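Write out the 3D structure for:
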Amino acid sequence: MCTTFFGSNLATFYCSICATLKRSSYLYNADGIGVWNYADADKSYNEKNRFEFNNGKANWLIKADNPVRDYSLIYRHKNQIYSSIRWEALAYGMEEYNWLSLYEKKNGRNKCIRLINEFLTNGISLTNWETIKLALIQ
């Protein structure tokens, strides 16, 4: 399952939403992703915030002046980079897409579509899906 710097239930929830979206996108043959921003939080900070960050304070400890404008996929502290819930969800969704591709190669498109529809209607548990993924690589 998805873990992040925060390790919270919110991270698991966010990752499951992203995985669901990726499964849906697989269903419609959407095979691209557009990340227009990797680390832009500048518009969410004021002068004082930027000063704190530039003087070594970790950006997750700085209260954003305008949190709606924080588009960053990562968190930074000096020269270290930490993943965010957004980053983990994006990565998890891409992994799910690859698993579905492998499943389709082994079982055919129709079975893959049925599997995705089971996901979307909660007809398959994450535990069962993990078992299916394990069987794909054995």
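The first strand starts at residue 74 and ends at 77.
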